Amino acid sequence: MKHPIGLVRVVRLVALAALSIPCLTGCGPSDPVADVLAQRARWEVIPQNWVQDDAGTVSVSVRLAGPPKSTLGSLTVRVAVADAAGSPAGEYWHTFDLAGIERGGPVDRLIRLRDVPVIEELDIDPIYAPTEDQYTHIQELSGLTAE
User: Fold this and answer.
1) Which CATH class is domain 27-141?
2) Average pLDDT, the chain
């Protein structure tokens, strides 16, 4: 059975009203830092595997997946490495270019870190809630200030 045209109009009006209600209570200027952090949080960075050669270069294969209509142009991650004893052996930052990723991926990308001491552990952290000292490393936040 087809719905009467009047019912379809009522459903559309109710849906539009529901979407508009949050703006009635405060759709003031948004915080650009909070907006970028919210966009960053929608991206997943999944380490696949890694290898280190004799020259100290570490190659890390990762899978990136995000929202289909992301306006984020880049995504910076922190790569922390540890030695055989589990002690921190360094911290590296890598920025992915998201411009060529269609519909949010998923896509496989490669990170290359040079001159890394011999390591046994590797952790990739997208830093969804950065501390103030981490802001300087995150390219997407460059030039933005919180309101």
Assistant:
1) mainly beta
2) 83
